[in-house]
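Researcher: Final request for today, and then I'll write up notes for the group meeting. The sequence and the SMILES for zinc ion follow.
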Amino acid sequence: MAAPRRPDPAQLSLFVATEPTASTPMRPAPAAPATPGESTPAVGTSALASAAFRHPQAAREIVLGGHTVAYALKRVRRRSIGFIVGTEGLCVNVPSWVGPRDIETALREKANWILGKLHQQQERGRRLQSARVDWRDGVTIPFLGQTVVVVLDARAGITPSGAVLDAGAGDGAPRRLHTGLPSNATPEQIRDAVQSWLQRQAKRVFAERCEHYAAQLGVRYRQLSLSSAQTRWGSASADGSIRLSWRLIHFGLSTIDYVVAHELAHLREMNHSPRFWDVVRSVVPDYQRTREVLKTDVLPVFD
Ligand SMILES: [Zn+2]
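Model: Predicted protein-zinc ion complex:
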């Protein structure tokens, strides 16, 4: 009921950074020359072959802490050197006037941070790879934080566009999602059937949670729509419309509740100020823990 405050910016997004960034302020180059090869592994110790991190658009390389890091270099209009580490590797954003020696100095200064992030992203890349769903009878997917087994069963009397989740045997075994597809269904057919079922569930659950939290926060939202975003879980617009990624339906309800409450809280505070977080905390007291889940969990990859 309360009139939402609507300062700028008009739209805020809940965005999970998959590419951590860091930057280092530019200082004049130190007088001392760089010490090349300071971390080159000793020749003859092949058993200690260093891991190589190679960005697909690598333009240069450097040895940091015994690891060869081949990085992409982007000339940008900014005042400092920026480092972006993603699953592809390291990309260095450099102001046009910065020379190779300054870049190397900056890389060595940030070596620990860069290597830490590279390892982290490599691990994340592996997990993403193994999260790729192999669409066949018996494949499992997370739904509301629980494992669900996909079952192909043309005799179940379910239309191909529908799917039905059973109640579970109550013995702790995962619930089964009966798709009504024949056993020779293609991976694409299985994916589409499961995806559209998940989207229907998302619509139902999100609408219900939005009602609940809108009442608690004393706000009104105009419209709820679904997106397919993989990293941008939700957004709220100043006109009162809420957008949520249907993929949130993979997470447990407490995670969904946090994102819903976060976006609705923006209808009171269109910013991420301490006041905004107070509003979130008033309805989701342990939101910090949930934020971590969103950052670290890897969801199934559907293509
Ligand atoms: Zn936000």
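Model: Residues 210 and 260 are 6 Å apart (CA to CA). The longest helix spans residues 187-217.
Researcher: Thanks, that's everything.
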